[in-house]
Specification:
alpha+beta, 8 helices, disordered C terminus
Length: about 240
């Protein structure tokens, strides 16, 4: 910001206690939903959600997100089939957890009121600001847009699930995306009867949330503070026998 030409500002005042509580409530009650109650999402509500997503931060202000609203039932069925194909392949790659994985509900494409495909357009390599050494920051930026939409959906009393089990090349072809475009997620959105009291994968004993203190380090990497992948899940599985 130039002192000669200061930019407009807004006051740096904290939220009220009630406003702050609402923000944290949305964060802690957000769930990756797989069970939907049909119904509809009003157009004005959907537009509010998409505006929230569009106000996400992005590296170099590149705004790499694009949203495809899938209105065709036939397209939905084809997306559902792509997910099911990859679900089987993923299960085979799970080894001893294949049977447990196949019991999980991994999508709500045919059940949700709305299906949105979030994709990144071609030409992202032209954005060098913030990406010269970390080109994956376009993916990180798009994930921020998805998170914004997720939190806004919770505030609206809607459920949302992020499905990433699909072949991106096949999905891009199905939706007639140009060369270089990359789908990052299929979002299932709509009314739900209730939210999971805890993340579904935790309730299903697939994994547990690791303690925050095991994720915090000072100055340098501390191997004694890191939980090995799936350690919590393995411990839980051993205790419950599931």
């Amino acid at each position: 910001m130039s002192e000669a030409h200061p930019l407009p500002t807004i006051p740096a005042t904290p939220f009220t206690e009630a406003e702050r509580a609402a923000v944290y409530r949305a964060i802690y009650e957000r769930r990756d939903m797989r069970h939907f109650a049909g119904g509809q999402v009003a157009d004005d509500v959907l537009l509010r959600l998409l505006r929230a997503a569009h106000h996400a931060p992005s590296v170099g202000f590149m705004q790499p997100w694009r949203f495809i609203r899938v209105k065709s039932l036939d397209l939905r069925k084809q997306i559902h089939a792509l997910v099911e194909e990859e679900r089987v392949r993923t299960a085979h790659a799970m080894g001893e957890r294949e049977e447990d994985f196949m019991k999980l509900k991994v999508q709500g494409v045919l059940d949700a009121a709305e299906v949105l495909v979030v994709a990144m357009p071609p030409g992202r390599e032209a954005h060098i600001f913030g990406r010269r050494t970390l080109p994956e920051m376009d993916i990180a930026s798009t994930a921020c847009a998805i998170q914004n939409l997720w939190l806004a959906a919770r505030a609206e009393g809607l459920g949302m699930g992020w499905v990433s089990i699909f072949d991106p090349l096949q999905l891009a072809k199905l939706l007639q995306m140009p060369d270089g475009a990359h789908p990052l997620g299929v979002l299932c959105l709509g009314p739900v009867d209730a939210y999971y009291a805890a993340p579904m994968l935790q309730q299903e004993k697939w994994a547990c949330r690791a303690p925050l203190e095991d994720m915090l380090m000072d100055d340098v990497w501390d191997t004694t503070r890191v939980v090995p992948n799936n350690a919590a899940a393995t411990a839980t599985k051993g205790k419950t026998g599931t």
